[in-house]
Amino acid sequence: MKNPMYLYLMVFTACATVGLQAWRTLFNNFAVEIGGLEGNHIGVIQSVREIPGFMTLLVIYAILVIREHRLSALSILGLGFGLAITGFFPSYLGLAMTTLIMSFGFHYYETTNQSLTLQYFDKGTSPWVFGKQRSVAAASSIAVGLGIWVLEPFLSYTQLYLLIGGLIMAAAVWGFFQDPTDKNLVAQHKKMIFRSKYWLFYFLTFMSGARRQIFIAFAVFLLVKKFGYSVQEITILFVINNVVNYFLSPMIGRAIIRYGERKVLSLEYFSLIFIFVGYAITDSKLVGAILYILDHIFFNFAIAIRTYFQKIGDPRDIAPSMAVSFTINHIAAVFLPALGGLVWMIDYRIVFIAGAVMSLISLVATQLIRIPRDG
């Protein structure tokens, strides 16, 4: 791929993945062992981590004063900085602050990444590029996991955070000296964009975010709570997931190019109905693991929602619409985990049956997808 934006975004996608994965891997142990935090503190900090996801609308105004690819580099710098200083602030407020900085960097990069990918790669290429980004992210997750596993006996938490965060910041500095832009691209609207003709894109984005929250909040919890999975077993599952996705993600991108968004998304939602029902009814530890891996695979099909927008949207609307969609995607993060937790206390199966119903609704909505003949 000769497009300079390809390398630029791949490097930063690896950085974003490494940063988030390192934070997830180290956070709970660091918070408990060094910070002495309790469950209520962890819950609040996890909620704080979602705040920047709702504030991605501000990207629209940020690109009024800074070019979008520069904002990507600045976001990665913020992610690296937030991670690098985490070890120096082991208190409740300190971890909330560093988490907020890290999360702003991660979410703002993800928003600009989606926007730049849709702007710089045509409709026949962008699904493949998104797939390659997922592949790079999977490989980066494995690499940082192995790196922490090797270095953890020799380095303190502070040193690990500083090392990984410092490397990410160095990559961001590299980005500031790059100019992968194309001056001939259509200029982006730098204002809030809501259009009624995009309603299906907004709806599918919201439903995708809601299902993602059920998966993130309750799938692993089910494996641990009901089937007694150990940390080692969960780690093995995580590695298997990333190995599978490393190879499958580019294939998913090619499938979108060949078969179109409606067919690919229909396959995702049809399959998720059975996966969620499977979570609800299975008593098999092995089946639970298989469902978890399949869930991860089909989660990657969601890139078709973004490529669908590329085919129906005004090219000038890409940047503001990606910012809006990221906020919509995070709406469910406000209430679903808490609501699901209350429902879980009644019967855990209800949570997953709700996921199946949401998948069915999305499957029906997907049949309304219509791609213009020139798209």
How many separate helices? Answer: 14
Q: Total number of β-strand segments?
A: 0
* SS strand fraction: under 5%
Per the CATH scheme, the topology name of the largest domain is: Growth Hormone, Chain: A
Could you walk me through the main structural features you see in this protein, from its secondary elements to its overall organization?
With 375 residues, this protein is mostly helical. The protein folds into two domains: 4-176, Growth Hormone, Chain: A (Up-down Bundle), CATH 1.20.1250.20; 196-366, Up-down Bundle (Growth Hormone, Chain: A). It contains 14 helices and no strands. The radius of gyration is 20 Å and the shape is globular. The mean pLDDT is 89.
Can you summarize this structure?
The chain contains 14 helices and no strands. The protein is mostly helical.
